[in-house]
Amino acid sequence: GAGVSQSPSNKVTEKGKDVELRCDPISGHTALYWYRQSLGQGLEFLIYFQGNSAPDKSGLPSDRFSAERTGGSVSTLTIQRTQQEDSAVYLCASNRDRNTEAFFGQGTRLTVV
Amino acid sequence: AQSVTQLDSQVPVFEEAPVELRCNYSSSVSVYLFWYVQYPNQGLQLLLKYLSGSTLVKGINGFEAEFNKSQTSFHLRKPSVHISDTAEYFCAVSLLNDYKLSFGAGTTVTVRA
What is the least distance, in Å, from the CA of B78 to any CA of chain A? Predict the structure, then answer.
């Protein structure tokens, strides 16, 4: 596609529910990243994919968070048993390789009530 | 580990006036430096980047930044702002050949007529 696409754009969920956030990177981009933007913590790195592998998961805040990438393309970030502190904007980015410009999606705004 | 400090959280400015957004970083090794802009309800867009070479970097929309190694700074400037420059601006660093971006807390620029 023309840019990085994320869905849904907004998600409201009840505390304790699981949510899935989707990212469609730019075609041909092998590297994919998830970041979280929250009021208290600013922009934080969550996870990096190279192809379908995730060599760096160091930013995932707890074991309730997981992510996968299939076909070297679409990625899904899953948050289990959501908590109010998970409320944030989740941004996805991709680049052709890790040394080139990263393009960001518009984000998914997650609100846990 | 590297870190980024954006010295101003809010910068109000009148239309056609100049603006400077300050960014300082700390790192024991060489880094790449970036400025991103985030318009309301949108993702991050790269304004400019410093990888090597000339310390004065020109970006999109009339923005420029100067890398000062001795002062570990990468301040962003625009000589004459427009209403449409109202946005949040993020300074970011990455280690050479690394993929992770470390972001500052952001500076909100509000341009008034």
Answer: 22
